[in-house]
Amino acid sequence: MIEVFGPLSVITLIFGGCCSNVYALEEILKQEPDSGLLITFLQFVLASALSAPTQLSSPSPNRSSGKPPVPFQRWAVIASMFYAVNMLNNWAFAFSISVPVHIILRSFGSVWTMAAGSIRGKRYSTLQIFSVALLTFGVIASAWADAESKGKNLSTSAPTSMGSFVSGLSLLLTAQILSAYMGIYVQDTYALFTTTWQENLFWSHFLSLPLFLPVASVLRRQYASLAATPPISTAVLSLAAFPTIGPAKPLLKLAEMTKTVPSGIFFLAVNAITQLACISGVNLLSSRSSAVTVTIVLNVRKLISFMFSTWLFGHELSGRMMVGAGLVFGSGALYGWETSWRIPRAKKAEANGIRKEKR
């Protein structure tokens, strides 16, 4: 299991792992669009297997805080929501939802998270709300520009029925709303109970595995389809162009060692490994930051994925994408300043004023 110690490691896991994951996902869907369930299953199996040792060998979380351990029922709820969110997100690909449209819809995560927090009584400043709205607009603008530069069709006039397209969008919308609530629920878990991000990573994946039993036949069919894809040798050249940072470094070497492996199976494995790195970083960030901060970081990561993708396929950055990049990074910095500097200083000044009045 990957050990994470500081902010730099979190950045490497999230940006290196998640960006590599998007690349592998595009390669899989290019060959077999109907592979969402298998992608999800392998990710869950790998995460469960590699995070299990941390629960068996590591000492129990520190109980000195006086907080009780997380009840099993709460882990079961988290696992059920996590399973549903991942299944819905990956299932949407079966309804002819392209990766650009997929990322555009998921860029609304920060909005749903903030809405869920507001419903549960959490209050956000005007500047926080403005920065999240601006960031979401920036990601959408960048995604749309990226899709146009690749010649991908984002309209409902694609060679698929309107009903199928709407069904895919509905799945993504449902997943985003559920994901927003799950983010707040997990945040409450860290606040109310004694736990670690490794514990959350293990239980959220392990307890979800039995839920795949009803779709076992679908998993076998999807695996057979990927096993019938051409050997990996032709994919090595395209992989060589990918920036080898963080968890992506071993990928080219791995590709050279597995030239006879079906390309679909190879990228399926790469997708699962990089997803583990990505979700490890997200879990660690969740244990240290607010749910909205997590979605902000992930939205910035999405933009970087777009920029990598544009560079990989030889497209120049359009004016609209540059504007989108400025909006995302600018609004991310604005949210960070408001959340980490201005609001804490204002609260501290208010507390000092109250103490002076009492004297």
Automatic annotation (TrEMBL):
The keyword Membrane applies. Signal peptide: none annotated. GO terms for cellular component: endoplasmic reticulum membrane; Golgi membrane. The chain crosses the membrane at residues 75-105, 125-145, 165-186, 201-219, 226-245, 265-285, 292-313, 319-337. It is a multi-pass membrane protein. InterPro entries: SCL35B1-4/HUT1. This is UDP-N-acetylglucosamine transporter yea4. One of its GO terms (molecular function) is UDP-N-acetylglucosamine transmembrane transporter activity. Its main location: membrane. Keywords: Membrane, Sugar transport, Transmembrane, Transmembrane helix, Transport. It holds the Pfam family UAA. It comes from the Eukaryota. It is found in: Endomembrane system.
